[in-house]
Amino acid sequence: MKIMLVAAEASGDALGAGLARALRARRPDLALVGVGGPKMAAEGIVSPFDIAELSVLGWIEGLRAYGRVKARVADTVAFAVRERPEAVVLIDSWGFTIRVAKAIRAVLPDVRLIKYVGPQVWASRPGRAKTLAGAVDHLLALYAFDAPWFEKEGLPTTVVGSQALHVDMSGADPARFRAARGVAADAPLLLVLPGSRPSEIRLMTPVYEAAVARLKAERPGLAVAVVAAGTVAEDVAARVAAWPFRAHLVSEADKYSAMKAATVALATSGTVSTELALAGAPMVIGYRFQPLSYAIMKPFFTGKYATLFNHAADAEIARELIQKDATPERFAAEVGRLLDDPAARADQAARQTAALDLMGREGRDPSEIAAEAVLAVTTAGSRA
To answer: Which of 137, 225, 275, 368 is most buried, taking the most CB atoms under 10 A from its CB?
Structure first.
């Protein structure tokens, strides 16, 4: 049996690697091929091209990258035609993977198509649920609140849970993290997480710099650390080096220790919010799009919250400052409120943890559930 995995971004690459390990544990004879990044490559899945160029977000950015994306869709479909897998698992990255799904269906109609991570239709563009139902055979959803949107369109769905809820932080050492950087155990520490996409770094880092400058002017003893995600590490390092105040740069390897050591976190919206909540760090969430992209996209936003645990709890547990609200003044005010109020920090951390329970924190490893579903769909026979 041969299964093809397709991931177009770093987060999808990590999911693909976990799925590959779980599949091989169940079927050592299984042949795995696909498109992915370094983590999937470490599992023996060598991509026919570099997926880094596909990491785009927003309408305008997408339009600029359209020709590049279209070419990579064609490359992916040609790869599928050459490899002839029994099933293709399309991981996250809606814009890219939905095009791949439709194109593969046209040329290989008997191949089982499985989507791993559905579009967040609870937040925007609910019509995508119907689009996906017409393009693939099965969905592996991350959360229970995802499933009804797709099942009502006739798409069989398995809730596997989010890998972000199962991060192993047992090796995190907040005391060592602070000591290695000369930050006293009782000193306030602000952890800044500007994002993992180039556009996020470009748009958010200057705003965070200005916000932190305000915070430090009012609190000279405030220590600051900035996480440099692997995909944008050089860009983040160069920007932080130019800040007029000291900020400790944090690598991916020390990220969880930093999260547990933080008094408060200031983070760009994304999976990292779930990781911070697992670490017990109260946070403020921000995001900015290119203005024109936001103007085009705003009418499609239907959800109340951008942060997953806020959505699960149906409450703004972590303050969200999006677009026009994402200003240095607002960030400084909200972060400052948490820094100055231990009771508010403790209350927010507890509410974040309770929301994670609603999201399925105590469930089985998502990769194992996903692997079982993929094998079941693949071996169920030809498409009806």
So the answer is: 225
Strands (E), the chain: 2-7, 31-35, 87-91, 112-116, 138-141, 157-159, 189-193, 223-227, 248-250, 264-268, 283-287, 319-322
Measured distance CA(262)–CA(281) in Å, rounded? 6
The rounded distance, in Å, linking the Cα atoms of 202 and 327 is 15
Q: Find the angle CA(139)-CA(128)-CA(268) to the nearest 5 degrees.
A: 85
CATH homologous superfamily of domain 174-358? Glycogen Phosphorylase B; (3.40.50.2000)
Interval 288-325: pLDDT, tens: 988 777 777 677 676 788 898 999 999 999 999 999 99
Tokens of 143: 């959360």
- The CA dihedral of 277, 283, 289, 291, to the nearest 10 degrees, is 150
Single pTM value for the model: 0.78
C-alpha count within 13 angstroms, C-beta hemisphere, residue 189: 28
User: Where exactly are the structural domains of the chain?
Assistant: 2-161+363-378, 174-358
* Equal fold, 2-161+363-378 vs 174-358: yes
Range 2-161+363-378 classified under CATH 3.40.50.11690? no
Sign, CA dihedral 175-181-186-192, equals negative
Each residue's pLDDT tens digit, 231-259: 789 999 999 999 999 999 999 899 999 99
